[in-house]
Design goal:
There is one protein chain. This protein has 2 domains: 4-122, Rossmann fold (3-Layer(aba) Sandwich), CATH 3.40.50.2300; 129-223, Arc Repressor Mutant, subunit A. 41% of the residues lie in helices and 22% in strands. It contains 8 helices and 12 strands. The strands form 3 sheets. A 5-stranded parallel beta sheet has the order 2-1-3-4-5, sandwiched between helices. A 4-stranded antiparallel beta sheet has the order 6-7-8-9, with helices on one face. The relative contact order is 0.11.
């Protein structure tokens, strides 16, 4: 398992404590104390996951992640922040964040969150899923459409698409989707699910025969033609 983690945190005490505990948990931790230092480090090495502080003096974490994704769209990341508000969480999840951890956090819990994310990345995906005129390439986390359009997915997007594909043509309750993909269900995760659903609907404009229908106050039906 590739367990190389880049911790990007300007608070010296928190950074030292977090790096120490995660190393003792078996992760290979590199600690960058600023956004610019992180960009330099990323130019020299690859990491399975980034832990990104949002509030840094030289560049906030959101802007840093945007820069990283320009050169590496598949990069996984978790935001670490003292901003415990809805808009900030949704902004982080819209960028494709795997998680959003509010300070002060329990380092042991953070370790398990990281462990689960990396494990999901390492699951071998040996076959494609055909969804009407869409193909989900599981080994590449990519969608291909009949018009030759190709779309790369984040880890979380891939998990949502896969859940919908494996449960096509049946009513899917919102809480069941959240538990299956995120492992828990709450208001903020429900809002993040809405973001993913909105993106799925836009991508379905490339499809001729797959639809995502809303079931009022219940959830969704992923309509796929049955051959």
């Amino acid at each position: 398992m590739n367990n190389k983690i880049l911790l990007i945190e300007d608070d010296l005490d928190l950074g030292e404590q977090t790096a120490f505990y995660l190393r003792s948990s078996g992760f290979d931790i590199t600690w960058s104390r600023s956004a610019l230092e992180a960009l330099s480090t990323l130019g020299r090495d690859n990491f399975s996951l980034l832990l990104v502080d949002i509030q840094m003096p030289d560049m906030d974490g959101f802007e840093l992640v945007k820069k990283v994704l320009l050169s590496n769209p598949q990069q996984r990341f978790i935001f670490l922040t003292a901003r415990d508000n809805k808009d900030s969480k949704i902004k982080g999840l819209k960028l494709g964040g795997e998680d959003y951890v509010t300070k002060p956090f329990d380092v042991e819990e953070l370790s398990w969150r990281i462990h689960n994310i990396i494990n999901r990345q390492q699951i071998r995906r040996s076959s494609d899923l055909v969804i009407g005129d869409i193909r989900l390439l599981q080994d590449q986390m990519m969608l291909t459409f009949s018009n030759k359009q190709q779309v790369n997915l984040t880890e979380r997007e891939f998990e949502v698409w896969k859940y919908f594909a494996l449960n096509a043509n049946r009513v899917l309750k919102r809480e069941d989707i959240l538990l299956a993909v995120w492992g828990e269900s709450d208001y903020f995760l429900g809002r993040s699910l809405d973001v993913f659903v909105s993106r799925i609907r836009k991508l379905l404009n490339y499809s001729r025969n797959v639809q995502l229908e809303t079931v009022y106050k219940v959830g969704f039906i992923f309509r796929v033609p049955v051959s």
